[in-house]
Amino acid sequence: MNALALALVRNEADLIEAFVRHHAPLVDLLVLADQGSRDGTREILLALQAEGLPLLLVDVPELALEPATVLTAVYRRVAPIYQPELVYLLGADTFLRHPGRAALEAELAALPPGATAALSRWTYRPDALALATPWPGVEPLTALRERGPQATPCHAVLRRDPADDTRLVLRPDGEPVLRQHGDALDTLPGYSTASASLAHWPVRGVEQFTAKVVYGWETHKAQHADQPELRASYVWRPWLDQVLAGHGLAPETLADAARLADAAAQAVAQTAGLQAVQATVLDPVTLHGGPRRLAALARLEPVVPLMTGLRWPALPGLSMCLPTGEAVDLAPVRALVDRLGARRAIVMGTPNWSADLAEVCPQLMQHVPREGQPDVPVDLVLVPAMPADLVPILAEAARPELVGHIAFWPAQPWAAGALEAELRLWQVQGWAPDLGQTLALRALGSYADTRQRALVLAPLDTTRPERTDAIRSVLVALDAAPAAPWKELAPTRIDHPLQALLVQDLAREAAAPSAPPPVMPTGAAATAPATPVSMPAMSPSAQPVAAAPRQAPVRSVLIAGAGRSGTSCLAGMFSPETHHHAHDLYAPQLSNPKGFFEAAHINDLNESILVNSAMAHYGTEATRDMLKGFEPHQLWLACFADDMPAVWNDMHRRQIADAVRDRPLCLKDPRMAITLPAWLEQVPDAMVLSIHRPPAVSAASILRECQVATYLLDFRISMRDAFAVWRQSYRRLVLAYRAGADVRFLRYNDLFDAQRLSQLEAQVGAPLRRDFAEQKLNRTTPDLKVDPASEALARLLDMLSERTFLNDRAGDHRLIDAYLADWPVRSSAPAPAHAG
Description:
Blueprint: E1 3-9, H1 16-23, E2 29-34, H2 41-50, E3 55-59, H3 67-82, E4 86-91, E5 94-97, H4 101-108, E6 115-125, H5 128-132, H6 140-143, E7 146-159, E8 168-169, E9 178-181, E10 184-187, E11 190-200, H7 206-223, H8 228-231, H9 237-244, H10 251-261, H11 263-271, E12 281-282, H12 304-307, E13 328-329, H13 330-340, E14 344-347, H14 351-360, E15 365-366, E16 378-386, H15 391-397, E17 403-410, H16 418-428, E18 431-433, H17 435-443, H18 448-453, E19 455-459, H19 465-480, E20 493-494, H20 504-511, E21 557-560, H21 567-572, H22 600-618, H23 620-626, H24 650-659, E22 666-668, H25 672-682, E23 687-692, H26 695-708, H27 719-738, E24 743-747, H28 754-764, H29 788-803, H30 809-822
Helix pairs in contact: 3-17, 7-9, 13-17, 22-23, 22-24, 25-27, 26-27, 27-29, 29-30
């Protein structure tokens, strides 16, 4: 039976090789969705691909996607292309015990289409040798020996019904498979099987389980970023707290972890009154495929996420390029380059293809043939959307002794019979279709032309003409068959196969009947787009009038300052009709009833820059110590040295360019006091607005926020650190102004001063929503003793606020220099941490 295995993989480098080698003889294809592994898992999988094992690797670098979403999307993408009869739904830490492929399929053949087989799953526990063996742990061939006393049913085999390909909903952990009927769901029928079972091995050693806890927390937060009540309920939180406290996990705790790791087994045990059972059963598992040979590629470093604030730097995400009228589907081509191990290629697509492919495949040298120069060997010739008249020219020019593979898809569908004639033309010139690479390229494609018509050709094997004929017949039959349903995405750039799940809003926007979007370059040549200017139409009856004074263009605005100092109120005064705010703004809450005017993706980007800067300035060990206990979105409360420069990279540049593409803009984030240079690189004409309240007011409000905000659960800082956070923001902004940035200083009370607001409107070039600010929302009445350093900085800010629109920069510099003479810049040693 044509069989396929599907599994979601995340940081399983210690056993992923054993998993692949054990299951490869059982199926025709292993499809592994790698969700952002950082421990060598992906490198091991690429090495196994290079060996020729039947493996399709699907990159999914988005932690926020739920496992069920990933599994369902991968199945719906792959199943119509490969058309398996059986689909094994496995976990990467689960091994199928079976009597052999023939005997197993003889039993599963009785399974009706559209049904699943439930297998007993036993949870195995680490023994003393496993706990004492350092990374990468003991050999899986010898380690699966002792299991727990309870088994749970696991719906691990699907007998595919092609009619259900677009309706099935797959779920992790062996839960029953669902089928959609409009808005309703039903459960596929499940049948028991006697000849097979599953060995589950979730806890394998101290380093492995420590990494599992840490990376699991990272993923848990990403998936519940907007659900603080769920984010706070991490099931492994007690073990995470031990790691965060620097105590580590003791080997004796792993036995308890192994018993609790399988929630279903735990529930069965509790129902049966067996929750206190400690006994294990000796039941060794026989694994196939031989010992590990790639363990050297594994790199397990459980503390790395702690050094980077658990989630930072962010994993590579989707490209947010706006549609340009051309689909640049990099994901299947990048995977093809990896599978072929290609190092030199000829790319005959548009400039977008060449530039963007160079960005995602920097190891691939793109060769440009020159007339009069000798031909050089290349691993790949890539021709996206190949015109029909180019086929005979390329077939004659591409010499099999110099070209490894040719990959292309036609610009237009083939007419009836045209594909067979074209394949015979290629065969005459020494080329034949590579069925495995062709199906893989199609399965990872996000557009119908790639999924239905992509071809990968390899030099013809003249010793096996019957195989070439059979493959040609298969491809011709596939072309003649009705196309599987596919929801087409608007033309854009696709960096990884499941990106379509994350750009649906972009696709709907592009499909809406509106003016065409501006054409933007992509890849390394991308820059922030110019702001389009619309001209009012003149009425036919209008009479000429004297020319009005030219109005200054509306300026973009970046708002910074300490948290709880009025930044949200100031941002809210900029109307969406004149300024673009960040998308997906946080909803109003009790502490900010009219809104925060911040977005998670802007906060995450700034926090990634902060951690990148700290690691460059302090080093990884000091950064780890300084950020211990912080979680995402909490770094606005972290303190850094004044002389720590902002350090950002190309990934940050691309993300900032995307964030500022709509102008004039108004972006606000307290962290921007430190990351400001990175933003001004992309928006050099922006005005920076610094707003402040008295330090005692802001510090008291910060302390209160740490008591009521759900995302600050378990986080506390001292009054001393609250003042330090306040000083950090404004010292940075003062230093930025002294260095030449266009910073304007405002007091919170200036938001209710009509004359000051008129001055601000004139500078910005747009009216403000003056009724947005309400005095009654200034509710904090502090009773805190202010330290001398904060008092001195507050006096300077008040003076600068009085002078901010006088355009007397030289006089302002003298004030700042006098302040710095008494209160010098705080150096980088020692690196401060919050009071915990």
